[in-house]
Amino acid sequence: MSNDASVLDNPIWHALSTAHAHFAEGDDLAKRYRTDIGPLSGMRDTSPEAYHSLARLLGPDDIAVLFLTDLPTPPDSLRLIRCFPMYQMICLSPPQIPDRDLTIKKLTTADVPEMIELAEATEPGPFRQRTIELGGYRGIPVDGCLASMTGQRCGLNDFTEVSAVCTWPEFRGRGYAKALVATVANGVFEQNKTPFLGVREDNTGAVRVYEKVGFKIRRSLHVTVLKRSQ
Asked: Where is 194: in which H helix or E strand?
């Protein structure tokens, strides 16, 4: 594994330019995941040319979600929908999976309807019909219900993002998220990569859970949602 974490300053761009290039649409200035996977998008830099290239990728109803080191400066071709701060956290050694009697199963395309329902209800981030193709999804079923899930998202050559951490409200407080994040993170280490994740800075409860797993805050980024101007 490489120790150069600087690529994580622009993780979506580097994912779509390397390990996830087969999921990418775009050019040498701006790229996005295919819309049936999700709205994550990246730019090589924040030049006006890169923003304009991103705008050309978007349809009238599309949004682009970016992780930026600085506050966004979109041109007239793009409209800022929202922007909020996010901690990027990284785990440098395999976490210990909690010693509990939990059923953790690999999720498949047959589980997608339940996964979408859970994601739409809890809003961990965009989850669409083919998001599962990004890999590594695990879930905890309880009484026939998908109570909690976690998976992978941005894949770079040496790093993989842990994402879609969500649990139905009635199943929270049972340690499901901690167990799933540890399990998925260990799966990343088994691929000889380093896991990272993003979490809203005001979500202090989630930050504490991730710290207990072994993640540390690396830096802050600006989650930026843009739409093409009409």
From this structure: strand 194-200
Predicted local confidence at residue 98, as pLDDT: 77
Q: Please, which pLDDT band fits residue 222 given cuts at 50, 70 and 90?
A: very high
Whether the model clears a pTM of 0.70, i.e. scores above it, the answer is yes
Starting at the earlier edge strand, list the strands of the sheet with 194-200. Answer: 63-68, 215-228, 78-91, 194-200, 159-167, 145-155, 138-142, 105-106
Domains of the chain: 5-86+223-228 (3.40.630.30), 89-219 (3.40.630.30)
d(CA 80, CA 30): 17
Average pLDDT over residues 42-49: 98
Let me know the angle formed at the C-alpha of 89 by 83 and 90, rounded to the nearest 5 degrees.
145
Half-sphere exposure of 112 (CA within 13 A, CB side): 14
The mean pLDDT of 8-17, rounded to a whole number, is: 98
Please give the Cα distance from 153 to 19 (Å, whole number): 11
Distance of CA 157 to the CA centre of its chain: 16
